[in-house]
Design a protein that fits this description.
Blueprint: H1 3-6, H2 13-26, H3 30-45, H4 51-63, H5 68-111, H6 116-144, H7 148-164, H8 169-184, H9 210-224, H10 229-243, H11 249-261, H12 269-308, H13 312-340, H14 344-359, H15 365-383
Helix pairs in contact: 2-5, 3-5, 3-6, 4-5, 4-12, 4-13, 5-12, 6-11, 6-13, 6-14, 6-15, 7-13, 8-13, 9-12, 11-12, 14-15
Length: about 375
């Protein structure tokens, strides 16, 4: 039996909902940091979620399409409170950042752009690198321990993520299968992993209506793009700018900036994009269409993970997936660092953020992000005079 089946919930549904409201409102750093916060808060500090349940949820979030952090939140809600918990956790996690991007979308249209974002992100982006680096270190130390095979998988995925500057989804599955094969030596036919990962098939919808076009496009983004917020950006750019011409290049870059400086899941930028294209109805439909597929996939797949989670084959598979995921997370830190650490002040900000988290383990990340934003506003005009 799984850990969740053996241990009753030590928290109420409202406590869990309140936590995800807090994380959605103050959780900066993108998917890499957010999955680390969930482990720190729900597994290490509160003890609400067992380590095994967290690892299963992380593995499912990595191998299924959709936004990583939102899928993990939905899965953790499912652990003790099933569909109601999954629904409450997912909604609470997404709602705060959705409201924020709505407000930013309104301000963007009224004031003709958000030039101040460059200054804010100059500081915040650097601090986030430090936060993500510490998160990746903690995840690796906690999950990989002294297992040479898992460390080798970690290193390969980190290197490939840095070289390709993307997350290669099939390698997560390959890593899980490799550990499964080496540890369990399965017979030619075994049902250990069968039917655990259903993928949705979206019907092809053709309609000239803009809202319908938005809904279909963002549903595809949510259903067929794997990995973190980094992975969805090229897909969004191809459809929004190149194919449909809904936004200009500058507007799209501003939309990505909105996602990076707001807390919660990075892909909530779809709500901002939807607002720019079709107002409030567009924002609602774009966000709903993006997150609904991953919600359905997670809820449908979770019972299989719960039912078969105790089997050695699946445990080995999850270990491989987890090692690959942490390697990709570490690699993505390097990729983002190349883009965010553009000069000496940003490098120093990133090092300072990591050092503060290393020394002051209880220091809330939002405090660091807020301080970095203020420093960014002060330093950006000095470093970008010419």
């Amino acid at each position: 039996m799984t850990a969740s089946a053996m241990t009753p919930a030590t928290y109420s549904l409202w406590q869990l909902t309140r936590y995800f409201l807090w994380l959605g409102a103050l959780g900066f750093g993108g998917p890499v940091a957010l999955v680390g916060y969930m482990h720190r808060d729900l597994v290490e500090r509160r003890g609400w979620i067992a380590e095994a349940d967290y690892k299963e949820g992380l593995a499912l979030a990595q191998i299924a399409p959709g936004p990583l952090a939102a899928q993990l939140a939905i899965y953790l809600g499912y652990v003790h409170y099933r569909v109601l918990g999954a629904s409450a956790a997912g909604f609470a996690f997404v709602l705060p950042s959705f409201l924020m991007v709505l407000a930013l979308g309104w301000a963007y249209q009224v004031f003709g752009g958000l030039p101040w974002m460059q200054a804010v992100f100059y500081g915040v982006g650097a601090a986030v690198i430090g936060i993500m680096a510490i998160t990746a270190h903690k995840l690796a130390a906690k999950n990989l321990k002294s297992d040479r095979l898992l460390w080798a998988i970690f290193a390969v995925l980190a290197l490939l993520t840095i070289v390709t500057q993307s997350e290669i989804a099939w390698l997560f599955i390959a890593a899980g299968l490799l550990v499964w094969l080496l540890r369990c030596r399965p017979r030619p036919w075994s049902g250990t992993l069968g039917a655990a990962l259903p993928l949705p098939l979206l019907p092809a919808v053709s309609d000239p209506g803009l809202l319908l076009q938005l809904t279909v496009f963002f549903a595809k983004a949510g259903a067929f793009v794997f990995g973190s917020g980094l992975a969805i950006v090229p897909f969004l750019y191809g459809g929004i700018v190149s194919e449909h011409h809904w936004l200009t290049d500058k507007q799209f870059v501003d939309a990505v900036a909105v996602a990076m400086i707001t807390p919660g899941p990075v892909v909530i930028t779809t709500g901002f994009i939807g607002y720019l294209v079709a107002g409030l109805p567009g924002a609602r439909l774009a966000a709903l269409a993006t997150f609904l597929p991953c919600y359905l996939i997670t809820v449908l797949a979770a019972p299989h993970f719960k039912k078969h989670g105790h089997r050695p084959g699946l445990v080995a598979f999850v270990d491989g997936i987890t090692a690959a995921a942490i390697g990709a997370i570490a690699g993505s830190v390097a990729v983002l660092a190349q883009r965010s650490l553009t000069d000496l002040p940003t490098v120093l900000l990133a090092i300072a953020a990591a050092a503060l988290l290393w020394k002051l383990k209880k220091l809330p990340e939002p405090v660091i992000v807020a301080g970095a934003a203020l420093l960014g506003v002060a330093l950006f005009p000095l470093t970008h005079r010419f």
